[in-house]
Amino acid sequence: MLPSDAAFSHWTAAALLGVPSRNCPSIHVVLAPRIVLPQRRELVVHGRALLPEDIDEIDGVRVTSGARLYVDLAEYLTPAELVAVGDAALRLGLTDADALSRRVVAAAGRRGVARARDCLPRLDARAQSAPESVVRYWLNSHDLPPVTPQLPISDEHGRVVAHADLGYEEWRVLVEYEGRQHGAGEQFDRDVERYSRMAAQGWLVIRFGREHLRRPQVMIQRVRQALLSRGWRPPPRV
Q1: What does the pLDDT read at residue 57?
Q2: Is 177 in the same domain as 217?
Q3: Domain co-membership, 13 together with 104
Q4: In this structure, are residues 89 and 69 in contact, taking their beta carbons and an 8 Å threshold?
Q5: Is the CA virtual torsion 170, 172, 177, 181 positive or negative?
Q6: Which has the higher per-residue pLDDT, 82 or 48?
Q7: Could you tell me whether strands 27-31 and 43-47 are parallel, antiparallel, or unpaired per DSSP bridges?
């Protein structure tokens, strides 16, 4: 049995809260520091101070809050991965921007807190998937114009007929991430219909897959070329 003040944390909390992150076979818990921490096989125990707002309950199970999860994982994740976690926490209603900011301030001095603070302005609740968040992170980390998540696409009558993962409305360039579920069955047919509607309205669609997430420079260069082809020009170097 774990102490009564323990709560599931880190990747275990992410799984319980429905926040996509790295797979981790170990069970992570956090509890207030003490001289001797509990030891169990396949159990990772973190001795950390817990604020009352750090704890939520799911069906009676204590789990760290969305804001605390963001701070805890900041020590271990890349900035792109952390943005994906923060986006998901916001989208799922597990936290809000003010709570995240307060928790980052309260975590001053912890490892990873600088990363958590730097990523805060990049978070966006509109993101619908972790890969979409990662693509947006990389595109917004260079000299490209800011990309809009879930950009609405209208037909010739002004009716919204689709939403693009990411888009540059001024230059009519869209960026789509294609997961494995997009390659077969009805999902494939829906995607074909969606892309044909986008093209019919004059949009240039750039599509990326899982392999591109490992090659961010390729994504950046291709989107850059697409924007240049539509009239965008980079700001002059100072």
Answers
A1: 93
A2: yes
A3: yes
A4: yes
A5: positive
A6: 82
A7: parallel
Q: Quote the DSSP letter at residue 185.
A: H
Residue 94 in tokens = 């597990």
Clarify whether residues 149 and 118 are in a common domain. Answer: no
Q: Taking the model in full, what pTM does it have? A: 0.91
Please count the structural domains in the chain: 2
Neighbours of 172 (CB within 10 A): 18
Last residue of a domain, one of 104, 122, 140: 122
Same domain? For 219 and 196 the reply is: yes
Please provide residue 32's backbone torsions phi and psi, each rounded to the nearest 5 degrees: -60, 145
Alpha-carbon separation of residue 148 from 19, 52, 121, 164, 173 (angstroms): 22, 35, 14, 9, 11
* Burial class, 143, CB count within 10 angstroms (exposed 0-12 / middle 13-18 / buried 19+): exposed
Q: Give the pLDDT score at 34.
A: 78
Among 17-31, 64-78, 86-100, 101-115, the range scoring the smallest mean pLDDT is 17-31
What pLDDT was estimated at residue 183?
54
Q: Are 116 and 71 in contact (CB under 8 A)?
A: yes
Q: If DSSP codes are grouped into helix, strand and coil, which group holds residue 235?
A: coil
State residue 7 phi and psi, 5-degree precision.
-145, 145
- Cα(first)–Cα(last) distance of the chain, in Å? 61
For 177, the enclosing helix (H) or strand (E) is: strand 173-177
